[in-house]
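Weekly sync, protein design subgroup
Attendees: M.S., D.O., the rotation student, P.L. (late)

Item 1: inverse folding check
M.S. brought a backbone from last month's batch and wanted to see whether the design step gives back something sensible before we order anything. D.O. pointed out we never logged the input encoding, so this time it goes straight into the notes. Structure tokens as presented (198 positions):
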């Protein structure tokens, strides 16, 4: 897991302090799972642990201070309820929405769109890329899962801050797992509480 971080500043009129956002790239975050293929049209059976990530830490975390967690194509947030018993317990108010657009053009959080995970479905729909209702698409010819171009995830974090994410790739450079499960993504994190601008 490698992290590249760039700090950018946005000047405000004095005496207001300078606000800064953090721009980073996470490379090959390991969210592999055990995948058992089932006869169509049944979805695959997925088992294994979720990998918890914190935007404020810029890394994988072990405690309850996670914002988002990944397992195979599933993305959950630390807010709401579990839709199956294998998911993590939610302990905070995190939320997310998926929006079409260009990362740089999304400069404000639309808080009316934020959703938490529910008892019947996660906020980011996990259809394994079959129906393209979530963040990815599955190619039946190549058996490759790819991020859908122009999809951006916008998060409210566990401590009421905000981040936007663009997923770039689902495999490691060695293609060590044919099912994938290695997330490479860009994100922008707003570290000031309740500030909705990036």
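Designed sequence read out in the meeting:
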């Amino acid at each position: 897991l490698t992290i590249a971080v760039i700090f950018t500043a946005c000047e405000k009129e004095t005496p207001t302090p300078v606000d800064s956002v953090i721009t980073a790239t996470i490379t090959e975050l390991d969210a592999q799972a055990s995948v058992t293929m089932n006869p169509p049209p049944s979805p695959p059976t997925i088992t294994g642990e979720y990998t918890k990530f914190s935007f404020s830490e810029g890394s994988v975390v072990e405690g309850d201070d996670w914002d988002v967690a990944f397992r195979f194509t599933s993305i959950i947030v630390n807010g709401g309820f579990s839709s199956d018993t294998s998911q993590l317990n939610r302990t905070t108010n995190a939320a997310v929405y998926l929006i079409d657009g260009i990362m740089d053009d999304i400069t404000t959080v639309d808080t009316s769109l934020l959703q938490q995970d529910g008892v019947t479905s996660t906020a980011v729909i996990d259809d394994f890329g079959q129906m393209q209702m979530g963040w990815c698409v599955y190619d039946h010819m190549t058996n490759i899962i790819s991020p859908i171009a122009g999809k951006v995830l916008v998060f409210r974090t566990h401590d009421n801050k905000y981040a936007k994410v663009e997923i770039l790739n689902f495999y490691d450079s060695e293609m060590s797992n044919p099912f994938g499960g290695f997330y490479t993504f860009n994100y922008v994190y707003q570290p000031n509480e309740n500030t909705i601008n990036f």
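Discussion: Residues 43 and 78 are 25 Å apart (CA to CA). The chain has no helices and 14 strands.
Action: P.L. to compare against the previous round before Friday.
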